[in-house]
Amino acid sequence: MNYPELYILRHGQTEWNLEGRMQGELNSPLTAQGQLEAAHQGAILAQCDLQGFAFLSSPQGRAVQTAGIALGNLAETIRTDDRLREIGVGDWSGLLRDTLPLPDAEDPYMAQYEVAPNGEGLAAVKARCYAFLQELKGPAVLVTHGVTGRTLREILAGTDAIQGTTIHGGQGYVYHLKNGSQKLLS
């Protein structure tokens, strides 16, 4: 399928990112570094031609806060879409990541999301990302989260788009996706 041109941003560093906590559906505010990362993303986007682009954000506070900083001078309207929210981690919400079981897997940190009790699971995230992309009518700037953004990038540009990335990657960067390829803007 041919998808519209996108710029994908991950929210800036949060207090819970700094502490190593699983956030999922819960929220913590951006740190000072996270605010600087969001401002840096805004500076990157200010150099891009965004005429005709829609601006969409996850409704979760950390993404909305990032969108306000990064897009506040660029977008007349920023809409939220629940499908851009972060993966639900169920009973592990708010817990320190290093206190949780680490599955024996190629990417044990991503595997944690799959085994989180009462969590959403990666297949469900992929399904809602596909649904979101199917309904997208034109080019857009998206402010989302680590796992959700990674899933969107994999759908749009294949597994090469996520090779070498970490679960914490992407804060302060902008991913430009067009015609099935990805470019990291930093």
UniProtKB/TrEMBL annotation:
PROSITE patterns: PG_MUTASE (PS00175)
SUPFAM superfamilies: Phosphoglycerate mutase-like
Annotated CDD domains: HP_PGM_like
Active site, per annotation: H11 (tele-phosphohistidine intermediate), E86 (proton donor/acceptor)
GO terms assigned for molecular function: phosphatase activity
SMART domains: PGAM
Classification via Pfam families: His_Phos_1
GO cellular component, one term: cytoplasm
Binding annotation for substrate: R10, H11, G12, Q13, T14, E15, W16, N17, R62
Protein name: Putative phosphoglycerate mutase
Species per Swiss-Prot/TrEMBL record: Yoonia maritima
